[in-house]
Design brief:
four-stranded antiparallel β-sheet; 392 residues; single chain; Rossmann fold; 13 helices; eight-stranded mixed β-sheet; alpha/beta; 15 strands; Immunoglobulin-like
Length: 392
């Protein structure tokens, strides 16, 4: 099964590109699910078919779903939230609204989006899932949740379970035992964390999952896409293509758009230099909005040509290791692609068995394998978009 994640700065047309990719893959014979994790869903408008929280048939071989975190929150978190609110009230939080607000933990939207996406992926109904992700900032939080927050949730829930176990006998004596959350409900959070971990394993396999970055030829958009590309590389996600959307065609008469076309030509040079060997998929600026099956099929053909949209278009380098010697000293070298980052923006340090990498505004805590966890960092080097960390 293939998973293709589409993301980009808000307003660049990523939903249209995601829908066109799904339409093209379905036309190629794949069974395809087009899924939206964007809180501001617009799939219904693009595919011109009502789409909701359950998979809906759009066309032959094509289904669509809008993952609704509010619905997921109500159905899956509501029993836990209600018990937590009752427990907080039992502890002295008399304001019911405040207790309910505290009972909703930060990051729950990411939890439910990822958990639902994992369920859909594990159903085995579809060959390909094309995900219309939220704009880049939200997507980065979503994709890195497993790496940065999942373990914290587990620890919090473990401590909560201990606290509730201690509180239960006293609460029963007082006749308010029902105010203490049950271990059964708390364990459901653990099951969601397990789902997220399984999905993360899928998303970092380049033969199974790819990220495609959608951009327009504008300075601010390109800068954000460059940062996103670096971030994806840092966390081990494979970017298999960059989609350049709304390119003014050469055949358009000059006049009002002349300055725009000149600016696009300058920016296109920057885009070519910024994204290593990733394929560039170019889509023209159409005379009308690309909505509905026929226009989406046209967009798909313009973007992919005769290539299957569900194919792995390229394999970006993931974290790798190699062995070398320097002056007779044996070294194991960890290599991490960090395109578009300068030496002054990178800081590498050891914290226990972890390697902490700060790259611009992004930080990754990389758990070292046993073979490196007890070794000393001998040297670090950033050259040609690759960070090398040598362990002696």
């Amino acid at each position: 099964m293939r998973i293709i994640l589409m993301t980009g700065k808000g307003g660049v047309g990523k939903t249209s590109v995601a829908a066109a990719t799904a339409v093209g893959a379905a036309e190629a014979g794949h069974t395809v699910l087009l899924a939206s994790t964007d809180a501001a869903h617009s799939l219904s408008d693009i595919v011109q078919t009502p789409v909701g929280p359950a998979p809906t048939t759009v066309a032959k071989n094509l289904w669509a779903v809008e993952i609704d975190t509010i619905t997921e929150l109500r159905t899956r978190w509501e029993p836990i939230r209600r018990e937590l609110a009752d427990f907080l009230h039992y502890l002295g939080y008399r304001d019911p609204i405040l207790a309910e607000e505290i009972a909703v933990m930060p990051g729950m939207e990411e939890v439910f989006s990822l958990s639902r996406l994992c369920e859909l992926a594990e159903e085995g109904t579809w060959d390909t899932i094309v995900v219309d992700c939220a704009p880049t900032g939200s997507t980065l939080r979503l994709l890195t949740f497993s790496d940065t927050a999942s373990s914290r949730y587990r620890r919090v829930m473990h401590l909560a379970g201990l606290l509730f176990s201690l509180a239960k006998p006293g609460a029963q004596v007082l006749g308010v035992g029902s105010a203490v959350p049950s271990r059964e409900h708390l364990s459901s959070v653990g099951r969601m964390m397990d789902e997220i971990a399984r999905l993360h394993e899928m998303l970092v396999r380049p033969e199974q999952a790819s990220v495609r970055l959608v951009l327009q030829l504008e300075q601010a958009v390109i800068a954000e896409t460059q940062r996103t590309f670096t971030f994806m590389s840092l966390f081990g996600f494979s970017v298999d293509a960059v989609v350049v959307n709304r390119v003014i065609p050469p055949a358009v008469p000059l006049g009002y758009l002349e300055k725009w076309r000149e600016a696009q030509q300058r920016h296109y040079v920057v885009v070519r230099q910024s994204f290593l060997d990733s394929p560039m998929l170019e889509i023209p600026y159409y005379e009308c909005e690309p909505t509905g099956p026929q226009r989406l099929m046209r967009l798909s053909r313009d973007a992919y040509g005769s290539t299957d949209p569900a194919a792995v278009l390229s394999r970006s380098r993931a974290v790798t290791t190699r062995h070398e010697e320097q002056g007779g000293l044996p070294l194991d070298v960890l290599e991490i692609p960090l395109p578009g980052i300068s030496v002054s923006d990178v800081d590498v340090r050891r914290e226990g068995r972890n390697l902490v990498i700060d790259a611009g505004d992004a930080r990754r805590v990389l758990a070292l394998p046993d073979g490196l966890a007890t070794r000393h960092v001998h040297a670090t080097r950033l050259a040609e978009g690759v960070l090398s960390v040598a362990f002696s």
